[in-house]
Amino acid sequence: MKIDKNKVVSVNYHLTGKLDQEPEELIEQTSNEEPFVFLFGAGGMLEDFEKNMAGKQAGDAFDFHIKAGKAYGDHNSDYVAEIPKEAFHVEGKFDAERVKEGEELPMLDSEGHQMQGMVVEVGDKHVVMDFNHPLAGYDLHFVGSVLEIRDATAEELEHGHVHGPHGHHH
Ligand SMILES: [Zn+2]
Fold this sequence. Notes:
The chain is mainly beta and 170 residues long. It has helices spanning 47-53, 154-159, and strands spanning 7-19, 25-29, 36-39, 61-66, 80-84, 89-90, 93-94, 104-108, 114-122, 126-130, 138-151. The protein has 2 domains: 7-72 and 135-159, Chitinase A, domain 3 (Roll), CATH 3.10.50.40; 77-130, Thrombin, subunit H, CATH 2.40.10.330.
């Protein structure tokens, strides 16, 4: 069986990412016991990830790169904002416990939508927050192998995701 539309695919991989000239860093590592399982062609995956997977069979290895622009987008400085420290006050005091460099925080935009931001810097008056996707700007590198391929069930196709172990639980 080959990887094609409406197949449920289990893969074991090692994903690293690279930001500009910095060294590759590990982003995600699956295992044979805890593989990554996805429904091919359901629109939930990066287009280039599926392009590289199409036609492979169980046991096949893969090793490919996806440039940031084709992955989670280039880093956009418009999504980096200086926010007055008062916005992070809890009971009249700046929440220094939670608002630290490198922490991810849920924030509300001006229309009340929730978005994830990462604290870049805590200054005297402002906090610099980055609302880009955490993998924005990263060139991705997938190395791994295909463990298993099966036909999706009618229910999985209707839902657009995988059920069962390692899949979606209702
Ligand atoms: Zn479902």
